[in-house]
Design brief:
Helix content of chain A: 25-40%
Number of strands of chain A: 10
Number of helices of chain A: 9
Number of helices of chain B: 9
Structural class of chain A: alpha/beta
Order of helices and strands of chain A: EEEHEEHEHHHEHEHEEHH
Oligomer: heterodimer
Largest sheet of chain B: none
Chain lengths: 252, 228
């Protein structure tokens, strides 16, 4: 890998996160250091409760980290005076529960961000949206409302909505976990094409076979840390970490 | 005295029906202005309260809002009206109708605030997160995504508040406002006949409550048809 010489798109340094209440602190991430580069398709896997989703949500500050730094396109986005809304425009996120806006049509779900935040015209936004709807094969659903769609369709629209902001990186938080089994494939298909188009992606998932097929890096998270990182082949063939071996054994 | 004579005495003779007409005018005017004031105040308070609950900011403003809502909801409307008229505006000469606008509007605001707050809290946190992940600020997410859904959810409760307010204005007579109730009571005091004027006033209130009710139902249906 020669990626080390490039500047990372996202650089995570000593990231820690604890949820605290009056009685005790619960640490969920401990001193995480990792870089993501342009064009990376990085999959994060690991047992439940390892902190995978929390880590992903720290990257766009839906969760506030307790300590550490995250550099996105050169700027520490955990700094005090950072305009996080501006950075979030460049970091798309896809949620487990889709979170489409139910009171807006599919078209408006896609275009409201570009129109209100990037100041482009309605026509331009709709042109952009139509291309994306075609890409997720839902061009005939532009005037539907989210509640008229199946789970798989909703998630494809959610992906298109994020892409409509033309982000530099896409964060996927267990995008297929809430779907019926027969709908998982259509969402993974969209993600596969996205990866082929060289979109930078960071994906938290339990879809191991898909990770092996699509990722260029797989990170194993357990016990609040990234315990191992490797390319897909070595990740599955030569796991070094004891916890990872146990985890992979259980997967079969 | 026959019914016909009774009605003549109470409503026709000396144009007594005008007490009801002008009283109704004031009642409706106070209701409409108070609804508008109440919604403005209510939105402001609900926005302060939910922003505090969701982001932890605005501690002082939230305390003030909480205090306001507690005091207004914890004391009788009549007393609030009397306090606004005889205490707050004691030394300034303000038209009574303005006093009524303010007193009923501020009172309604406290109830509307809790209704709208409940509506906002009923919207899934994921909607805020989806807005945030696209780059919308908290205020923008509120405006574009949360409030449109929240208002639709609480529309029946808001309609109910409007109906309650219409009937509450019947205490305006305490500051010698000529509202519908007061109009009926004036007729009663002139004719010494209670039945016809009081029941007529009651029927008129009921009529307008039914109109408000059907308007709200119609609005609900329209909103329901606009999405699914």
């Amino acid at each position: 890998m020669t990626t080390d010489q490039k500047t990372p798109l996202i650089e995570v340094k000593h990231l820690s996160k604890a949820f605290s209440n009056s009685r005790h602190d619960l640490e969920v991430l401990t001193d995480i250091n990792v870089n993501f580069y342009e064009g990376d398709v990085a999959f994060i896997v690991g047992p439940s409760g390892a902190g995978k989703s929390t880590f992903l949500r720290c990257l766009n500050r839906l969760e506030e980290a307790t300590a550490g730094e995250i550099y996105f396109e050169g700027e520490n986005i955990l700094g005090n005076k950072v305009d996080i809304d501006r950075h979030r425009q460049k970091m798309g996120m896809v949620f487990q529960q889709f979170n489409l806006f139910p009171h807006l049509s599919v078209m408006s779900n896609l275009t409201i961000g570009p129109i209100k935040l990037q100041g482009i015209s309605k026509e331009e936004a709709e042109e952009r949206a139509n291309k994306l709807l075609k890409r997720v094969k839902l061009e005939d659903r532009a005037n539907s409302f989210p509640n008229q769609l199946s789970g798989g369709q909703k998630q494809r629209i959610a992906i298109a909505r994020s892409l409509c902001m033309e982000p530099d990186v896409m964060l996927f938080d267990e995008p297929t976990s809430a779907l019926d089994p027969e709908m998982v494939g259509e969402v993974l298909e969209v993600m596969r094409e996205l990866a082929e188009d060289k979109m930078t992606m960071i994906v938290v998932t339990h879809e191991m076979a898909f990770a092996r097929e699509v990722a260029n890096r797989i990170l194993f998270m357990a016990d609040r840390q990234i315990l191992e990182e490797n390319d897909p082949v070595n990740f599955f063939e030569n796991p070094k970490n004891e916890r990872l071996r146990a985890f992979l054994d259980k997967m079969i | 005295m026959s019914l016909k004579e009774n009605l003549y005495l109470n409503f026709i003779k000396e144009d007594r029906y005008m007490y009801l007409v002008s009283g109704l005018g004031n009642t409706l005017l106070i209701t409409i202005v108070a609804v508008v004031v109440g919604i403005l105040v209510g939105f402001l308070l609900a926005y302060i309260r939910t922003t505090h609950d969701k982001t932890g900011k605005w501690k002082v403003a939230n305390l003030f809002a909480q205090l306001y809502i507690t005091v207004i909801r914890g004391t009788p409307m009549v007393l609030q009206l009397l306090i606004v008229y005889f205490v707050i505006f004691a030394s300034v000469n303000v038209p009574k109708i303005i006093v009524a606008f303010i007193a009923f509007g501020l009172n309604s605001g406290a109830y509307v605030a809790e209704i709208i707050r409940a509506g906002i809290m009923s919207i899934d946190q994921g909607q805020f997160e989806a807005g945030a992940s696209l780059g919308f600020s908290y205020t923008q997410s509120m405006l574009y995504f949360i409030l449109p859904q929240a208002i639709k959810n609480v529309l029946p409760a808001l309609g109910n508040e409007m109906i309650v307010l219409l009937k509450e204005t019947s205490v305006a007579g305490y500051i010698a406002m000529n509202d519908l109730t007061r109009g009926a009571d004036i007729i009663r005091s002139q004719t010494y006949s209670a039945f016809a004027p009081l029941l007529m006033a009651a029927a008129i209130y009921l009529f307008f409550v039914l109109i408000f009710d059907s308007l709200v139902k119609k609005l609900e249906r329209n909103l329901k048809n606009s999405d699914h």
